[in-house]
Design brief:
Elements: H1 3-6, H2 11-26, H3 39-52, E1 65-67, E2 77-80, H4 85-93, E3 98-101, H5 114-118, H6 122-133, E4 137-140, H7 152-161, E5 168-169, E6 176-183, H8 184-194, E7 201-203, E8 209-215, H9 220-229, E9 232-235, H10 240-252, E10 258-261, H11 264-274, H12 276-282, E11 288-291
Parallel strand pairs: 2-3, 2-11, 3-4, 8-9, 9-10
Antiparallel strand pairs: 1-4, 5-6, 6-8, 7-10
Helix pairs in contact: 7-11, 9-10
Family: Belongs to the GTP cyclohydrolase I type 2/NIF3 family.
Keywords: Metal-binding, Signal
GO cellular component, one term: cytoplasm
Length: 302
């Protein structure tokens, strides 16, 4: 057999191509695509990142998978306050299939779906059906989220309101700020503009002078504690039959305490936007995007 038959290209060309092929095979990211990343893989990374902050993961936490197969290969990550149907649709449009939701998606704290399944609830069936049809996975990040340092919700809230510049006492939801004097109505207006919301409400005398204010939790005990520290409290959702009525009685007794209420979603959703850079540092292979779940309320002026 002739040399030309054995070597359609010259020996020099063969050696050069062989060398280049070897370089391509050994170069990171060129020999083969990065290993597929599953939703479970991402959660394990989040747990590890939390552990690095000294956060011990609780197996009894509500931070668990709610919809979909944890071993689904992820195409993109969404951070949101609540995985509503609209958020799911936006995720699909963005080509993302793993949603990290701060709040429950099945209408109770534990995301217990037994009653919904038993009555074949049409909303539940439609929501889970949409998720399954679009290969979506939803995981909740609530309990351990609030233990991050700095705590995302209060950090964003205080920054947006400029409260972090004011003298204060306490930490987190028990922090009381010295505020430049405003009326209770003006304080409510500030929240409506900064978050922004058309459903901000307040309980108390609109003209009451406020010079010390606190963010309060969702509970009546949080409201009571706030009134020990401040002239007014601000909350992203409380129960009307206890916290609101307690505040009303306090005012009717002449104690002059104010309570400003903003929608739960408005008060906490920016915390899920705040953690996007942190999540992006954990999941470097995929885009991490915040989706605003939007305020649910519409209001009527009378």
């Amino acid at each position: 057999m002739s040399e030309n038959t054995m070597w359609p290209i010259s020996r020099r060309q063969f050696l050069v191509q062989s060398l280049l092929s070897g370089l391509l095979l050994t170069a990171p990211g060129l020999a083969q695509a990065s290993p597929a990343l599953t939703a479970r893989d991402i959660v394990e990374r989040i747990k590890k990142a939390c552990a690095e902050q000294g956060i011990n993961w609780s197996d009894k936490s509500i931070d668990t998978f709610k919809v979909g197969n944890p071993d689904t290969v992820v195409t993109g990550v969404i951070s949101t306050f609540s995985a509503t149907i609209d958020v799911m649709r936006q995720a699909v449009a963005k080509g993302a299939n793993f949603i990290i939701s701060h709040e429950p998606i099945f209408y109770n704290h534990m995301d217990d779906t037994s009653a919904l399944k038993a009555r074949q609830d049409p909303v539940y069936l439609a929501k889970t059906g949409f998720a399954e049809a679009n290969n979506l996975v939803v995981w909740r990040f609530h309990d351990h989220f609030h233990r991050l340092t700095p705590e995302p919700v209060t950090t964003v809230l205080y920054n947006r309101l400029g409260w972090d510049k004011f003298p204060s006492q306490g930490q987190g939801f028990s922090r009381s700020f010295e505020h430049p004097e405003v009326t209770l109505k003006e304080l409510a207006d500030i929240f409506a503009r900064q978050f922004p919301s058309g459903s901000v409400r307040f309980v108390g005398d609109p003209s009451q002078k406020i010079s010390r204010v606190s963010l309060t939790s969702h509970s009546i005990s949080g409201v009571i504690n706030t009134f020990k520290l401040s002239d007014a409290g601000v909350s992203a959702e409380v129960r009307e039959w206890d916290s609101v009525e307690y505040t009303r009685d306090a005012n009717e007794l002449g104690l002059n305490k104010g309570l400003v209420l903003i929608a739960h979603e408005r008060g906490e959703q920016f915390g899920m936007k705040y953690i996007v850079p942190w999540l992006s540092s954990i999941v470097t292979e995929l885009p991490v995007t915040f989706i605003n779940s939007q305020e649910p309320f519409r209001t009527i002026k009378v």
